[in-house]
Amino acid sequence: MPDVSIPVLIESFAMPVPLKTSLEKCTVPQLKDLASHLPGAMPSKKQDLVDWIAAAMLGGGAQAAWGQLNEVQRAAVSECAYQPGGVFAPLRFVAKYGKNPDFTVPGAKSSDRYSPKASALGLFILFDPVERDSRVPADLQAVLRAFVPPPPPVVLPSSDALSEGEELTVRLGEREAAQELAIMLRTIEQARIQVSEKTSLPGAASLRALSEKLVGGDYYPLVEKKGKWEQEIGPIRAFAWPLLLQAGGLATRTGPRLTLTPAGIKALSAPSADVLRGLWRKWQKSTLFDEFSRVDAIKGQGGKGRVMTAVAPRRAAIEAALQECPVGRWVSVDLFSRYMCAVGLNFSVTHDSWRLYICSPDYGSLGYAGYGGWNVLQERYIFAFLFEYAATLGLIDVAYVDPVDARRDYRHIWGTDDLAFLSRHDGLSHIRLTPLGAYILGREAEYKPGAVVSNIGLSVLPGLQVRVVRGTPAPEETLLLDHWAEVVEPGCWRLDRTKALSAIEKGFDIGELRAFLERGDDMPLPETVDSFIRNCEKNGKALKVSGSAVLIECRDGETAAVIAGHKETSALCLAAGPKTLVVRSEHVEKFKERVRILGYGVLGQ
Fold first, then answer.
1. What is the number of alpha carbons within 13 Å of residue 66 lying toward its C-beta?
2. Phi, psi of 537 (to 5 degrees)
3. pLDDT digits (tens, 9 = 90+) for 159-173
4. Torsions phi, psi of 166, nearest 5?
């Protein structure tokens, strides 16, 4: 992407200004520069110059002046001629065309001898010193539309496949989200996620535990930082899930732990696509968390007063851009960001970039020119939102690299010498909208999972080995095999009962494995493989967690027997040993009330 440190310009809604009025705001030297691009002898007095230039441009002179413009300058005139208000938006123009048009003639001096000479583009797009913007006057717009072609539409480039040679890790959000949703809800049901009572954020121990439960683990390995100043990538999807579930009303904090709400309990048996769609919609409006705070190298976000903007407009802008992504095709996140600029999906991250800084509020303030541009603020927010939340909910697949030195566009900012990356999300490279994403965004009325199209040949052997004999497995095919089998050597897997049972526990359908193997091998599946699949399918669901429980240790066996056998409490507990009772978590409070009626008290939770 080109240099985008240009500040975002908000289009002015001032009353239309005619060409003459715009010219009258120019100085005489500026008017002479403009007049030099028109044929004939120019007058010397200011008002005469204004009248002369206006008559020429509103007459036949505009088309002659158009012939003096180069391709980029013509594009600028075209954009403004068909833009309501005629305003020139530098950020949008650079994003669409890759460079700014020349408003001056290189090497030529103005008639005032101190400034560069204005190019012929200045006859069309005039700077307004009051509104502090540049625009084509309204009456000139009408003239230009007679011969200036409308600008081409903005296109979001995409591709069927990722470029060969790029060492990218691919994660399939659609396939992982449904399984992880069930895992997260069950984990909360068992009261295993601890969060801060102040911020509702998961603690370090909870994040480690959640990372281990994720399908295929988190995006990056969890590596503890060794030094105080060392950067840590840390969890990403494991961090997002507890926040998404809280914002979606499926989980709530009870003391230091998360518990399921009634809606969360219902979600355990509801279609996962509908639950994920609800979580996305709730997250769009939630004020629980600002995704930009995850860019923790940028300080000052929590300063006094209103430093950061509201999150809902930012999310809405990105969602609008996601609506334009083709389903099943890869889009570079750099081009995605550039597209947002080009079509005017602008947003602000902060009310005052001077309040944000890197390392030092004095020298590293993002208010300095070139420090807090779109690529540093808005683009980092886009990456965090896509990588940590849209991908976690399965709207997109992602392709990424290690964030260390993945982007160097911030290296000119004071205080960044010791940073390995500006954001933990800097490694995000490409996204691909999934069929689930199209459903969640409302583009499809029903959810139809995307079919895996395979071009590989397999040899499924009686010894439970699966060998690739033709073609190269797609990332989703490799991921599928990794769920059920251990890698023996490149291109060869061995079906593993422990991995298979673990996959079934996480919600994967072993029928998908059977269908994949049968498609890939022309021969019927060996009896040993068929038996392996049938036994795993049967035994993988032999036990079911129906809820979490609390162990109550009684002072002696006699007390335990009295409580377990009494009509007030017998339905709320079961004996789990000579002195131990077990009570379902949702019945604990009622159990305590009934026990008090019997004359006993319960210590602890």
1. 21
2. -65, -40
3. 998 887 778 999 988
4. -80, 125
Nearest of 280, 275, 277 to residue 386 by alpha carbon = 280
**How many helices and strands, by DSSP H and E, does the chain display?**
22, 17
Q: Under DSSP, is residue 232 helix (H, G, I), strand (E, B) or coil?
A: coil
Residues 57 and 195 in one domain: no
Cβ atoms of 166 and 159 closer than 8 Å: no
Is 590 a domain residue? yes
Tell which residue, 11, 12, 35, 15, has the closest CA to residue 23: 35
Summarize pLDDT for 292-313 with one digit per residue, the tens: 999 999 999 988 888 999 999 9
Question: Residue 191 gets which letter from DSSP?
Answer: T
Length of the chain: 605
Instruction: For residue 581, give both structure tokens.
Output: 């009772």
Domain range for 560: 549-597
User: Which residues in 259-269 are b (16+ Cβ under 10 Å) and which e?
Assistant: bbbeebbebee
246 within some domain? yes
Tokens of 590: 């009622």
Q: Judge if 98 and 192 occupy the same domain.
A: no
Amino acid at 536: C
**508 domain-assigned:** yes
Q: Are residues 345 and 415 in the same domain?
A: yes
Three-state secondary-structure class, residue 221: coil
Residue with tokens 């996959």: 503
**Residue 596: CB partners within 8 Å, gap ≥ 6?**
none
Residues 577 and 465 reside in one and the same domain: no
User: Tokens 């295993």 — which residue?
Assistant: 192
Where does a domain end: 518, 539, 560?
539
C-alpha–C-alpha distance, residues 234 and 72, integer Å: 44
Q: Residue 480's closest CA among 453, 459, 461, 440?
A: 453
Query: HSE of 469 in the Cβ direction (CA atoms, 13 Å)?
Result: 12
- 510 and 562 belong to one structural domain: no
d(CA 514, CA 525): 9
Residue 407, token pair as written in the block? 């982007």
What is the count of structural domains for the chain?
Answer: 4
Is the same domain home to 180 and 140? no
What is the separation, in whole angstroms, between the first and last Cα of the chain? 56
Task: Please state, in angstroms and as integers, the Cα–Cα distance from residue 147 to each residue in 52, 86, 143, 366, following that order.
Answer: 22, 16, 8, 43
**Sequence-ordered list of residues with C-beta below 8 angstroms from that of 412, at least 6 positions apart, any chain:** 370
Question: What's the token pair of residue 352?
Answer: 């005052």
Share above pLDDT 70 across residues of the chain, in percent, rounded to a whole number: 96
Residues 313 and 431 both lie in one domain = yes
User: How far apart, in whole angstroms, are the C-alpha atoms of residue 242 and residue 259?
Assistant: 11
Q: Quick check: 355 pLDDT over 70? A: yes
- 507 plus 579 within the same structural domain: no
The C-alpha atoms of residue 436 and residue 450 are separated, in whole angstroms, by 8
Distance CA 380, CA 363 (A): 21
Q: How far apart are CA 551 and CA 581, in angstroms?
A: 6
Structure tokens at 59: 């007459």
- Please give the C-alpha separations between residue 571 and each of 215, 265, 472, in angstroms, as whole numbers: 38, 22, 58
Would the pLDDT of 3 be above 70? Answer: no
The pTM for the full model equals 0.75
Determine, yes or no, domain membership for 3. Answer: no
